[in-house]
């Protein structure tokens, strides 16, 4: 049986860290929007402007994430929904992870960056893991559901993975062949059932190559993927992927796309671990490149929402799971073509609202807490402030 419904699905959006800043949507390497200096103020270095391409990519990817979650309850009755679900799951998480790796290139063990890693990733993980656990107790009528920081529930696995990946960034910048090494680790993880569920380490290791690729990428690599030839080539590639997914839907276990289990846990022969790891990696990279090819380069109406994708990612999980707990998909007409279209539009609309600036301001206390009280003052930073004064 293909796992759907209550299964935890990888979902996205990643936080991008600016060179020398925290891994949060607001602090990316692309920088904050430039502001005009006050009259008479001394001219300082011009702040770097955000790159609209990356904000657009994050927003479009999170919309695909939400739509895929809305299709999941429909896959048991609709082969088309299953094909779309499998196709999107092939590339939406790799796209997020590659962007996360790209904006993690400057991460090191400097105190201010470690502080931001804690406040921007670790603290939100703890808060949302506890919140999700209480939500499941209430919404699913499961008062005995445990609160465990070692067993990420539903979407929070990505924060654990991002924390681990960023901490290991100096290692990947040191070794000579980082991508082959990361692929080897992912392959070994796929045939290692004893890793267990603690901190979802299977996912951390099996998705690792995409983060390492992001670390190795340069701006010109994204530029090459955005050429007109790549756009034209992506159309038949996407069409072929959809046709293959439609054929494979009743024949393939969709758990392969989650990268959550070893081959033994999927009841597959051991040799399929390396084969499927490399095959899935290749397919994901091709479709991710095709996705990037169609991301707009210019500022769009939704560009500003790219800074709030992590908010939408974590908050929409309550609705995604609540819709299952409360039986919203038990309505028969939702499993008809018109119902499937309606569900898709509603999912895209909801995730768009959850990425808006008002929602970001309302939940910034949980997603980007300051927490100055929790850290010692850095002597080097104090010295820099005294010099500047």
UniProtKB/TrEMBL annotation:
Pfam family for this entry, one: Acyl_transf_3
UniProt-listed InterPro entries: Acyl_transf_3_dom, Nod_factor_acetyltransferase
Keyword Nucleotidyltransferase: no
Domain Acyltransferase residue range list: 52-355
Keywords attached to this entry: Membrane, Transmembrane, Transmembrane helix
UniProt-recorded Gene Ontology molecular function terms: acyltransferase activity, transferring groups other than amino-acyl groups
Membrane spanning stretches: 83-104, 116-135, 147-167, 232-249, 269-294, 301-321, 341-363
Domain of life of the native organism: Bacteria
Segments for region (Disordered): 1-48
Extent of Low complexity compositional bias: 32-43
Identification of the protein by name: Putative integral membrane protein
High-level lineage: Bacteria, Bacillati, Actinomycetota, Actinomycetes, Kitasatosporales
């Amino acid at each position: 049986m293909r796992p759907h419904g209550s299964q935890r699905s990888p979902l996205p959006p990643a936080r991008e860290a600016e060179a020398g800043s925290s891994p949060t949507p607001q602090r990316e390497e692309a920088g904050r929007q430039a502001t005009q200096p006050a009259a008479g103020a001394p001219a300082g270095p011009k702040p770097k402007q955000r790159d609209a391409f990356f904000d657009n990519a994050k927003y479009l990817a999170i919309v695909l994430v939400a739509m895929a979650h809305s299709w999941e309850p429909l896959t048991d009755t609709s082969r088309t929904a299953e094909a779309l679900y499998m196709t999107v799951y092939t590339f939406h998480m790799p796209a997020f992870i590659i962007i996360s790796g790209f904006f993690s290139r400057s991460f090191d063990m400097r105190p201010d960056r470690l502080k931001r890693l804690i406040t921007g990733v670790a603290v939100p993980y703890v808060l949302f893991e506890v919140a999700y656990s209480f939500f499941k107790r209430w919404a699913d009528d499961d008062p005995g559901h445990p609160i465990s920081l070692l067993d990420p529930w539903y979407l929070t696995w990505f924060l654990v993975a991002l924390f681990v990946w960023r901490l290991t960034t100096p290692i990947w910048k040191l070794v000579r062949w980082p991508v082959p090494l990361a692929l080897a680790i992912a392959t070994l993880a796929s045939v290692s059932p004893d890793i267990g569920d603690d901190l979802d380490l299977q996912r951390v290791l099996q998705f690792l190559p995409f983060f390492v690729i992001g670390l190795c990428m340069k701006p010109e690599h994204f530029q090459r993927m955005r050429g007109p030839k790549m756009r034209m080539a992506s159309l038949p590639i996407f069409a072929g992927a959809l046709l293959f997914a439609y054929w494979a839907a009743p024949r393939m276990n969709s758990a392969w796309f989650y990268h959550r289990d070893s081959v033994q846990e999927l009841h597959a022969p051991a040799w399929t671990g390396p084969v499927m790891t490399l095959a899935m990696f290749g397919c994901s990279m091709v479709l991710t490149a095709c996705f990037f090819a169609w991301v707009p380069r210019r500022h769009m109406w939704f560009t500003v929402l790219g800074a709030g994708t992590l908010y939408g990612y974590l908050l929409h999980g309550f609705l995604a799971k609540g819709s299952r707990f409360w039986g919203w998909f038990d309505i028969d007409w939702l499993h008809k073509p018109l119902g499937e279209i309606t569900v898709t539009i509603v999912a895209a609309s909801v995730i768009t609202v959850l990425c808006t600036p008002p929602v970001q301001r309302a939940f910034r206390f949980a997603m980007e807490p300051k927490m100055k009280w929790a850290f010692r003052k850095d002597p080097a930073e104090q010295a820099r402030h005294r010099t500047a004064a």
